[in-house]
Amino acid sequence: MWFLLLAFGLAVPAPGRAHPHIFIDAGLVLLHNRAGRLVAVEVTWRYDELYSLLIMQDYGLDPDFDGTLTQAERAATLGFDLNWGVGFEGGLELWQDGTPLMLGAPEPVSLRLTDSGQLETVHRRPVAGAIPMAPVIKAAIYDREFYIAFELTLPMRVVGRAGCAPRLVRPDLDAAYAILEAEIERLGGAISAEQNFPAVGAIFADQVVVTCAPA
C-alpha cells in the first residue's frame, strides 16, 4: 500500500519491522440532508507527532518553528494525503442497517497544525445508497494491511438529524493478536517482506455504532 510514504517521498522502512508504522487518530461527522438521509461524511485524520514532523520536513512547513502554518502553506499542502494508491480507498467503511454504503472520492476540507505539533487534516466524501431516517448506522476506519493504525479517538458527531447517539466499540486486542500470531505461523513463522504481512487490519479496527430514535 505505502500510499503515504510514496506521496511524501520518504524512505520505505526495512522489511520485517513490526506493524503498524503510522498512527492516526480519527474522527467522523455524519452529514444528513433535510429528509434525514446520510449524504456525506467528514473524516478527520490527526497524525502522530513523529510522522507529522516527517511530513512537515518533506513539505518545508513551518520553517520558522512558530507552530503556525501560514495561509500559503496550508493552501499548497491541502489534500496532500488524498492521493491514495492501489489497494487503499481511504480506510472508511459505512453500513446502514447492515447494508454497505457507497463512498465517493474525497475532497479536501482543511489542514492545521495542533498545539502538540500534529498535522490534522479533514476531507469530505459523498455517500450514496442511504435511505432516510435509518435507525442504525455503523462506521469503521482501518487500513486492511495494518500498515497504518487508525484509532477513533476524535469526536464522532451527527449533523442534520436529531436523536442520534454514537457508541464506540473497541476491538478485543487479545483475540486480534492471537489471530495475527496464527496467521504469521501459517505463513511460516516469519514475515520476510512487508508485502507478505497478513491483511489483519479489520480485526484491530474501532467501530462506531450510531443509534437514532424513530422519526
Descriptive account of the structure:
- The chain has four helices and twelve strands; from the N terminus they run H-E-E-H-H-E-E-E-E-E-E-E-E-E-H-E.
- The protein has one domain.
- The chain is α+β, with helices and mostly antiparallel strands.
- Helix content is 18%, strand content 34%.
- The strands form two sheets. Strands 1, 2, 5, 6, 7, 9 and 10 form a seven-stranded mixed β-sheet that branches. Strands 4-3-8-12-11 form a five-stranded antiparallel β-sheet, with no helix packed on it.
Mean pLDDT: 86
Please give the count of helices.
4
Question: So what's the overall shape?
Answer: globular
Total beta strands: 12
First-to-last CA distance: 42 Å
Helix/strand-derived class?
Answer: alpha+beta
Q: How many discrete domains?
A: 1
Quaternary status of these chains?
Answer: single chain
Roughly what fraction of the amino acids lie in strands?
Answer: 25-35%
How are helices and strands ordered from N to C? HEEHHEEEEEEEEEHE
Task: Produce the secondary structure layout.
Blueprint: H1 3-8, E1 22-32, E2 38-47, H2 49-59, H3 71-77, E3 92-96, E4 99-100, E5 102-103, E6 107-113, E7 119-128, E8 136-141, E9 148-151, E10 156-159, E11 164-169, H4 173-186, E12 207-212
Parallel strand pairs: 1-9, 1-10
Antiparallel strand pairs: 1-2, 2-7, 3-4, 3-8, 5-7, 6-7, 8-12, 11-12
